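Q: Sequence in, structure out?
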Amino acid sequence: MLTVAEINERGRWNDLLRELPGAHVLQTWDWGAFKQATGGWQPTRLAFQHGRQIVALASLATRRVGPLTVMMVSKGPALDYRDVDLAEAALAKLEKRARRLGNVWLKIDPDVIAATGLPGEEGERRDALGGQFMEMLSARGWRFSASQVQFRNTLTIDLQRPLDDILMSFSGNTRRKVRAAAKKGVTVRAATLDDLPLLYQLYQVTGARDQFLIRPFAYYQRAWRDFMRAGLAHALIAEFANRAIAHVILFRFGRVCWYFYGASANEERARMPNYALQWAALQWAKAQGCATYDMWGAPDVFAKSDPLWGVYQFKRGFRGNLVRHIGAWDFAPQPWLYRAYETVMPRLLERMKNQENPDEPT
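A: Exactly. Output:
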């Protein structure tokens, strides 16, 4: 029988999470605390147990929207989805909690793979486990969400290879640009907490150039500072002639490193600092023992009309594996209320999403 208990200790939660399949940085204690401080989401850390063994975890975030309540498990729950009985039992426990609290919806978006490769092309591979889990969700009354919070698709690079092999796997054009950056005098260094205002300044420049809104400095200061202090984030700055011209901010948990933030100055872009940074980021992630580098985000529609198409063209040069996840699914205890809510909120969320950086974790 599966039982549920709350965990109220940061170190224990993160240690348990590291040991579970599908552990994601957005399920850490630290991310829950960050979203509580900046977005009003109240975290509850749930441990699912068989006897004394903890077999699944879900950092459940709850927020009131006026008189209504919504709940979300970002990039979770963390469990072995090959264990169909466990997945179904964990869903049942979450559904029961949502009913008891009278939620409009409960949203989950675990990193369960639906397919790899480009849709409709020869290399596409449907994932049987992902298909089975989506069938289970549908049978239990869950529905594919009209409001996708995180990316469904991404590009991942296998770091369990020699660095030379990784470099040689890049497209010829990308490999040339990585080498050109070094020849053109670009150097890369690790950022410190003292560099946070500089990181934000470059992010502001990028937002103005690419026409997306960014949040106030205090938001990023908290995210970058707290995660860097916790050893869960690392920033790299590309410089030319001792002047910062680009940066990346990486988040790391378990054996995965995510490229969450990137920015560049308007000047010196011809020196290819973004290519130098990605190569340095891959080297750093491998040195930390990571097995996977997640480039965080690929288009929903693989066409030039998609807002992520230009970024995708840059990322695909590093020849990562295109991974398409099942996306976010909603459980609605009161379907009529859910339908009413969904007629209004998607328009508001889409408007907000179009104004903000689409690469940013939410």
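The CA atoms of residues 57 and 228 lie 24 Å apart.
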